[in-house]
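Issue 218. Parser rejects a valid record. Input:
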Amino acid sequence: MSQQKSKKTLINWDLVTVNPNNKNWNWTDLFYFWGVNIQSVIGFSLITSLYVIYELNSFIVFFGTILGSFLVLFFSNLIGKPSQKFGLPFVVLLRSSLGFKGAKYFGLLRCLVGISLFGIQTYFLSKSFSYLLRIILFYIDPSILNQEIFLTFFLGMNIIDWSAIIIAILFQSFLFSMGMNFNKKIISFSAIAVYLGMMIFFFSVLLSDVKFTFQAFVNILDLQNFVNKNNIGPILTVAGTIFAYFSIIIISFGDFSRYVKNESELKKGNLSLILNLIIFSFFALFIVSGVDSFLKQDIENLNRIFTNPTDIIGKLDNLLITNFVLVLIIIASASTNMIVNFIPSQYTLINFIPSSLSLKKSSILIALLGFLVGIFWLTLLSQIGILSFIDTFAAFFGPLFGVMIADFYLIQKGNLNNKDIYSMEKGSTYYYSGGWHIKGVFALIIGFIFSAATIWNSNLMFLQSYSWIIGAFISLLIYYLLAKE
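Output the parser choked on:
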């Protein structure tokens, strides 16, 4: 779509209210959405690790997971409602509480975190492409991988790795720049494909020896001492871990809820998060326990439990299963990368220069920056502790949520001036002080200090899983006290 002729405008066709005809998401689409968010290598490892590695009572882990998902559900309903009601992405709604300049610059933090994580996850996604390329080359000629060209490395990668990361970048940036209607199809396809794949993997493990694998699954379900006050701590720890995993998507959930038909579908769809966690946890745990019981028959594997799917397929020594799982990992990782990192980065980047950027142009920019992050991840960025800086920037997300919620529900009483949200004129509702809402900025920074303290203060690190909630509550309270009449 063509942009406004004026270079000084906040209007962009990708940021305006969604056409009612395009509000075609229902609860099943949100079921797929939440499914994709959990269907990643990290999600698989996280869920299985909570059950298997930490030796916690299985019911404690289960209820901790459910508690964590209810927290995600609660906050997602709060942040999703205004976007669903007005059809606007998160960063445009942010103009109401921070002013149009405040939203422009603080919203860019979501873009910086998104692009960084997009590049890092693309690096790991490229490893699956790399494995497939090696399998293909080995199938063509077993000796070809011993050629000198494949033994030459630059920035920690050889020609196969470089080819893989370029394929991964082009594959994702092309697919994700097609618009939300196409993205919706990607999300539903990915969720269904991965669940079908896990079901096939589940039955292949089960039917290999029904009694043996079922008993292995039952053995890890420790049901003892369920009713015990000492379980409160572990429940809260698990709940915080689950919430922290999903917290990055909450702040930009409006980028997706703006396409939901009505509030009823929104609430039903968010409730499906719990169903997704139950289904995914069951399949993941059964697969890990079943495969582990077979691997334990080899003395080399007695002291290790494999919870990472790439480690599991590496031990199975089955080419068909390896290729099958690699394809599932590619599908799951790419779609998760799209939801968590790519689309939020698109909107916040467009909002930074609304007169010049479109979905296509922003996608190219994200791809280029993500590519740079990906190629320097192994040799530079991972060595300098870049994730600590990303966590610090992400510490703004809870406070951003807090000021937005306080503004929409407590100050604006659920109302929004849809015309002035795009206005840069003095005297407009959201002009504030030259485009900055000082009260909102102050509340945001105070909340950030409390949130970031759980990352950098060693005495407060035990609260890090709840840093998002702490920052959100502090900013909400301060903003309300400052902005109320």
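Fixed in the parser; the record now loads. The longest helix spans residues 90-140.
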